[in-house]
Write a structure and sequence with these properties.
33% of the residues lie in helices and 26% in strands. With 231 residues, it is α/β, with parallel strands linked by helices. The strands form 2 sheets. It has an 8-stranded mixed beta sheet, sandwiched between helices. A two-stranded antiparallel sheet has the order 5-7. It starts with a strand and ends with a helix.
């Protein structure tokens, strides 16, 4: 039986990436909804909701009113315990929908860096990252407080709240396990202003992607696969 996944996309190149074939392998038919453009009325009933990343802040609903709609949608799904995955901005929106504060972090985290898993994280699907040195692609400036009742799964040296779960059906990842290494050049183009402002050397980022990307992509597929299998 095919199940329905709705993925809310904020910028075209931050898509499902490696998650797309994993979803298909687990019997999900994925449909995109472009934030601020497409209607989200049918997203509440989806078997799985995935909220993807984007270069805006949860607290900017005055500038981007659709964020309030997404937050309300997520609050509805959290209350119902419906399967929901948030990545980067999506994770921050889940935190906000769970009544936690979202705010600018101490500094931008952009590039490949290792996670610091908690004991719970080592027992979660994130454990598949261990053979890849717990590396992940980070691309955010905001952070969030841990929602009440959430289980912290991973941190970094700079940002303590990087991943959490709310029961078995809700997973929030501030980092990008879904990113396809071979398509990361699209991110470098789309985020050129942010990268220049942050002083990120593109060749360094490309080199780190060559070193870590494929191993993390394999690990990420295993992470998502185990989480989906448990739903």
């Amino acid at each position: 039986m095919t199940r329905r996944c709705v993925a809310i996309r904020h910028v075209a190149f931050e898509d499902l990436g490696i998650l797309a074939p994993v979803l298909a392998n687990h019997g999900y038919a994925a449909e995109y909804r472009d934030a601020g453009v497409d209607d989200l009325d049918d997203a509440a009933a989806a078997d799985l909701l995935v909220v993807l990343g984007g270069p805006i802040g949860v607290y900017e609903a005055d500038r981007y009113p659709f964020l309030a709609t997404e937050r309300a949608l997520l609050a509805e799904r959290l209350a119902a315990g419906r399967p929901t995955l948030g990545i980067c901005l999506g994770a921050q929106l889940i935190a906000s929908a769970a009544a936690a504060r979202v705010y600018p972090g101490p500094a931008r985290e952009i590039g490949w860096a290792p996670l610091l898993p908690t004991a719970a994280g080592r027992q979660s699907p994130l454990r598949h990252l261990e053979p890849a040195g717990w590396q992940a692609l980070h691309w955010h400036g905001d952070t969030f407080d841990l929602p009440a009742g959430a289980t912290l799964l991973a941190s970094t040296a700079l940002v303590p709240h990087q991943a959490f779960s709310l029961g078995p059906a809700v997973l929030a990842l501030q980092f990008h396990l879904e990113a396809e290494p071979r398509r990361l050049e699209r991110w470098l183009i789309g985020h050129t202003v942010e990268l220049a402002a942050a002083g990120i050397a593109l060749d360094d980022l490309r080199g780190a992607t060559a070193r870590h990307g494929e191993a993390v992509a394999r690990a990420g597929a295993a992470v998502f696969g185990e989480w989906l299998a448990a739903l």
